[in-house]
Design a protein that fits this description.
heterodimer, A: about 180 residues, alpha+beta, Alpha-Beta Plaits, 9 strands, elongated, B: about 575 residues, alpha/beta, Rossmann fold, 3 domains, six-stranded parallel β-sheet, globular
Chain lengths: ~180, ~575
Amino acid sequence: MEENKTFTISVYSENNVGLLNRISGIFLKRHINIESLNVSKSEIENVSKFTIVVNTTEDWTRKIVGQVEKQIEVIKAYYHTDEETIFLETGLFKIASNLLFDERQIQNIIKDNHSDIVTVSPDFFVISKSGRREEIEEMYEQLKPYGIMQFVRSGRVSVSKSEMQISNILKEFQL
Amino acid sequence: MEVKTLKKEESKTGKKIRISGAEAVIHCLLAEGIETVYGYPGGAIMPIYDELYKFRDKLHHVLTRHEQGATHAAQGYARVSGKVGVAMATSGPGATNLITGIADAQIDSTPMVCITGQVARHLLGSDAFQETDIVGISTPVTKWNYQITNAAEIPEIIAKAFYIARSGRPGPVLIDITKNAQFDEFDFDYQKCTAIRSYKPAPVVDESKITEAAEAINKAKKPMIVWGQGIILGKAEEELKALVEKAGIPAAWTILGASALSSSHPLNVGMVGMHGNYGPNILTNECDLLIALGMRFDDRVTGDLSTYAKQAKVLHFEIDPAEINKNVHADIPVLGNVKETLAKVLPLVNENKHEAWHNEFKEKYKIEFDKVIKNDLHPKKEGLTMGEVIEQINQASNHEAVMVSDVGQHQMIACRYAKFNTTKSNITSGGLGTMGFALPAAIGAKMGAPKREVVAVIGDGGYQMTIQELGTIFQTKVPVKIVVLNNDFLGMVRQWQQLFFDKRYASTEMTNPDFVTIAEGYHIQAKKVTKREDLAAAVEEMMASPHAYFLEVRVEKEDNVFPMIPTGASVSDIRLS
């Protein structure tokens, strides 16, 4: 059996209602869990980009990408390993404001993790940390003893080291 | 397009004419060359039905007795004619009743457009009467789907729907139209869709693969072709025949590929798969080159993948890139429309005979004939076999009938023994295995090919799943011939219970009604045959009738279909008994 690995699937598509459902259904049909999902605009006007992270075999990933690409509104889909991409996630921590003054260690945690204070109000302050998932997890563990009021982590966003030639595909269509 | 039917005074903007969304739907269908639609009215689609009434002399609407029947009829129509089948239903239960047929069309790559009514835009999401999220429900089983909430979208979306349904690897498309969009008026203008930027119907042919494929064919000592429905969908029957004859390659077929090459062609070596012929199954694991043409290596074809054709180099001619290496590794994938790729390969292929290799198929056929075929077609026992009924139909139809089969033992027997001279003659539910498919599909098939004889062969189980469509036959007077092979059992499940579940016949024995009386209730001429000596005359009488005809044949209760590759076994382990 081929071993499971983390793959980042990048899908360039038209921005249409229902496509998310269609794409997620491809994973559902194969009983494969989506680790993270992000939908945003891409470098091309009116083209959306899905960034989907899965942990499965390369064989399954290739087959899934084939099925995704087959969808009418998908322009092109790619998959990459972690080594082939630059990627990060963002975590937001909401913490009681008094701790910033009562617990000096918190300031060190913020500094040591190269994180940013997004906002400070009389009741709470918010720290944002971007990076690899392990880095955000580590910061979470460090802050946990002091009490985290709210925590959220985004899906992965990623760019590939190699080129993804969407513009060429769209240009070909116009010819 | 020319909109002849519109009142001139309404035309204020030259080509564009102000009409309702519902009327626009009809004009779109007419512009796509649609003559027949199958469906069932209801609240949310009433504006469209109102227009169907006005256009009834131009667009023939067939009222089925259930929406599932409408989809299967549309499938039968599409499969036999190569055109897009159209089915319509209202929102809610009307729409959900389409799902089985849509799923069937998706897995069997049948071009179909389904149009559903939907509650008005302002009611969406309010759990309104007969509201259901049909776009959400149908997403996994459609090639594409879309909800129209604004009348002005209708021409563009319907044009896209037909383009997507029929191009590339065909499939079903569902268009859901809210009631307000059916009522609203807009400036109508129809343009056919010819391209979509994110959709490539057929991949660009890689010439190097053509050369590699031809070299592999020329080098092979024991080449074997397995063709599928791609040959029929791609209209590549002539190219297939030319390749088979020029290179002298024995050619076998999947059930959906049946009839693309005449059954009597000397190099047609029969069916592959679970109940396929002995030779092509066994020799799949002895050939040195497996040439797969427009087929997708379904598990019912391959059996255990880890022992499937491991010794052979695999050439895979395929239009859908997602099928390459999905189940079986392709040493040489040849992507593209199979008609185009075969035409390119043909001139590069050397003439050959492969006589010794072909003889191996003939020897295997002799074994199968003695152990299985002889007993199926010329039985010595008292009870009637399904095989001899199919053989009678072959003779009475001169191998020219369209055979529409349902799902189960009778289907396997029909596919094994039916003889076809003409392509698009074997209509059956392959991938989904939908019981209840045949009766409505036969209605559509007869309407799609009115000059051809259409015979539905159905088991007693599947028949009762869509038996209500006798009403459609009665009302439309469509002259289909219906043969029910009655063994008072869900025969295929019973066979598995016998072989793999120690004869525990859980819920497979059926207490059946008097089928003849039921058919006669619909004023369909009906007959029942229980003895061999009455069979030939009954089949001939049925085929000679200019009207619909129902024939029930009582067959042996506990016959099994052989050969058989048990689930998960290798094609080499095919059983003859």
